[in-house]
């Protein structure tokens, strides 16, 4: 697979998700700075970072492993968004936007994982 991680549509979508998470968590209560705010931000950064790190590895097997870790972080974000919404930290529209972003990144990750794992013809 040629190109850099910056060329990957999934990395670009993951970066948009990071920026959305940062913008949306600014309004979280200050007492959550080291709790849910930090967790949500770290999970979002982890998605984009694992995509980049995997792309920098030498084999498709390693890339697939890092993409799978990124996929797990997407589910972590979905869970944390649900918690934030239930606690009243996120409005329904913001929560839905983040969940839609997670779904987009998840679909792109699934497609790339399948492509990378596909045996060479």
Question: Can you characterise this structure?
Answer:
With 121 residues, the chain is mostly helical. It has one domain (5-117): de novo design (two linked rop proteins), CATH 1.20.1440.60. Helix content is 74%, strand content 0%. The chain is built from four helices and no strands. The longest helix has 27 residues, at 60-86. The radius of gyration is 15 Å and the shape is elongated.
Pick out the low-confidence regions. Answer: none
- As for the number of domains, it is 1
Count the beta strands.
0
The CATH class label is Mainly Alpha
In the CATH hierarchy, the third-tier topology is known as de novo design (two linked rop proteins)
Task: Please report the number of helical segments.
Answer: 4
Report the mean per-residue pLDDT as an integer.
95
Strand content range: under 5%
Share of helix, binned: over 70%
CATH superfamily heading: 23S rRNA-intervening sequence
- Report the C-alpha radius of gyration, rounded: 15 Å
Q: Please trace the helix and strand order, writing H or E for each element.
A: HHHH
Q: Which assembly state applies to the chains in this document?
A: single chain
């Amino acid at each position: 697979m040629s190109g850099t991680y910056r060329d990957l549509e999934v990395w670009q979508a993951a970066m948009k998700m990071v920026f959305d998470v940062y913008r949306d968590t600014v309004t979280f209560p200050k007492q959550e700075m080291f709790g849910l705010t930090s967790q949500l931000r770290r999970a979002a950064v982890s998605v984009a970072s694992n995509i980049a790190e995997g792309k920098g590895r030498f084999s498709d097997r390693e890339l697939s492993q890092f993409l799978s870790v990124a996929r797990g972080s997407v589910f972590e974000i979905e869970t944390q968004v649900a918690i934030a919404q239930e606690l009243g930290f996120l409005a329904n529209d913001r929560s839905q936007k983040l969940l839609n972003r997670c779904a987009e990144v998840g679909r792109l990750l699934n497609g790339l994982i399948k492509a990378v794992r596909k045996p060479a013809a």
